[in-house]
Description:
Mean pLDDT of chain B: 82
Largest interface: A-B, 25 and 33 residues
Strand content of chain A: under 5%
Distance between the termini of chain B: 24 Å
Low-confidence stretches of chain A: none
Distance between the termini of chain A: 25 Å
Number of strands of chain B: 14
Order of helices and strands of chain B: EEEHEEHEHHHEHEHEEHEHEEHEH
Order of helices and strands of chain A: HHHHHHHHHHH
Low-confidence stretches of chain B: 307-316
Radius of gyration of chain B: 24 Å
Radius of gyration of chain A: 20 Å
Largest sheet of chain B: 6 strands, mixed
Oligomer: heterodimer
Strand order of the largest sheet of chain B: 6-7-8-3-9-10
Structural class of chain A: mainly alpha
Mean pLDDT of chain A: 88
Number of helices of chain A: 11
Helix content of chain A: over 70%
Strand content of chain B: 25-35%
Amino acid sequence: MILSIARKEIKSMFASPMGWIILALLMFAFGTYYLNGVNDYFEVMSGAIRPAERYGVTQFVGQTVYGLASFIMLFAVPLLSMRLISEERRSQTLPFLFSAPLSLTDIVVGKFVGLVAFLSILIVYIALMLCTLNIWSDIDFGYILANSLGLFLLLASFSALGLYFSSLTSQPVVAAILSFIALFALMILDRFFAGDPSNTMSQLSLMKHFQSFAGGLIDSGDIAYFVLFIITFLILTIRRLDADRLRG
Amino acid sequence: MNNFTVEAIELTRLYGGRPAVSDVSFNLTQGQVLGFLGPNGAGKSTTMKMLTGNLAPSAGSVKICGIDMIENPKEAKALIGYLPEMRPLYKEFTVDEYLTIAARLHKVSSKHIKKAVENAKARCGLSHMSKRLIENLSNGYQQRVGIAQAIIHNPMVVILDEPTVGLDPIQIRDIRALIREIGGQHSVILSTHILPEVEMVCDHVQIIDKGKLVFNGSIDVLKRQRIGNKLLVGFNKTPDIEKLAKIKDVTEVEALENNMVRIRFAEGKLPHEAIVQASVKNGWGLYQIAPDQTSLEDVFMQLTFQDVAAPDAVAA
């Protein structure tokens, strides 16, 4: 049943120009950065004479592209997640889902899976793009894998948070702004506490946990953080929808 | 185990302490069409939301074919088709796409989805609209899609909240025929403001007012109440009221404007003949004699405004 909802969400994303435009713009941006990265690599590396300053093309290009991806998704995900529930609230289509034989968990997880599946298109696209480097060099697949996993978890967290804010309001734009502010705050939280890295607050930052993936390190602690983050917001969303049923 | 398709047991719903629906109980058996009547804000939609599990009742319970809505919502919801007041349509999809999604969400097995969609479209007269975007359909056709969505999985109980709102007379006739057809195999609950509609479609009526059930009975009871033991008689000359009142079986005579007279008579008697004869004998110039029908609106008013004359025979 979760998959039925996810299919419906993906279908509706592609039914409007919104989904196509966002995909096209993002792919264009990533493609440009990828090309720039490849060009810059030779310039920078020819300048770095000492071997210690040289590093692989995967890391050099990957850093640029994944760095951009994590930043640009901060804007893109709220735009995609905003309509998940608030649009249904506004056009009063929620009773359609509520009166179907589905649990609230099915509905919320289905919507979440739908959005993440849509975003995964981009993750796969970036990974494939970087793999083309393998044609003329010997690339580090582990680095791409770690970054893809990190980006996947990061985007899934964005989606879960966006879904929650979407369930709070019946105005998609309000949902988008709220989730953007919340995500932005969570992203730069570690900057505020840069002087004291052991501070608990900085541990809450999404960016801090993405950093290790960006360096090619898969840390179970970071995976646990993202998974807990996602579960928390999904549960909050379910609770919010349940409140609709209870309080009306 | 009884064979009620819907059982509502003492349903109560409070909104901030104020009861929107209080102590509503009723049952429905298979093949019945139940009309739900009531003025605005009486609690019709709230009751329907509770029946379909969209709203949790503050007290009481709902059973669909014996399955409790609160304990086993998934199983109970699978037996219901619901069209809310605001049509829950995804306007970016075509009719086919939307109905396929509806079928899939209602657990129609993937082999039968195509057939179910075709069937629902045929029943609602949508077959030639398959590829149209719902957004571009007229109001009436959108309503049909809403109804198609509610019957696509062949549910035991179909609940329609004001299904004929915004339709043209021809479409209303089609929809009524459709409701009667559905009512043949399933139970149907529909709410409406249009009283003649209830008379045409339903075989069971409930009138709800201020959250309380004020009438629950068969449509015949309502009809009988409507016809009553009254005659409306018109004369050319002013008749003698006393002489009229003395005619056998006449219980009450009330003079109205334009020499019209309303005559009440005893239950089961037919004083019509005697009245005509009296008129001929006295030369009153009778020109009209007809049963005085209380309009359904009047019955409705009587039931919903209890301070105006207590209703004669309210079947509980």
